[in-house]
Amino acid sequence: MLKEFKAFILTGNVIELAVAVIIAGAIKEVISVFTTKVIMPIVGHFTGGVDFSDLMYVLSEAVVDADGNVVTPMNAVMYGEWINSIINLVLVGFVLFVIIKAYNKSKKKKEEEAPAPSGPSQEDLLAEIRDLLKK
Description:
This protein is mainly alpha-helical. It contains 4 helices and 4 strands; from the N terminus they run ααββββαα. The protein has helices at residues 2-9, 12-46, 79-112, 122-134; strands at 57-60, 63-64, 70-72, 75-77. The strands form 2 sheets. It has a two-stranded antiparallel sheet. Strands 2-3 form a two-stranded antiparallel sheet.
């Protein structure tokens, strides 16, 4: 059983999957920072300075006592964070689409460069058989 597990772990597909997961984590971090630090300020500028991460629907306000301590915290639906996560999803999907498209394009070039098989073609062989049958 240990040998089977070792063979499974050392196959190319598992190693490629592990590399893909690590790269996906790095891409997610880059896209997340790109969204929050680059895209959202631009979107906020064109929407009148709105920061989506601050958008919320307050269900109940926070209750504060006389000393300024919060007795009951505010209860709110933070839909701005959800909008940010949707934008992150779209950007990550687009980046992965571009990566896969480039990968497929490079893969097609390798398939096209495959050398033609050596030896007679199918037509030559059929012509030879025809000539032999005529004799």
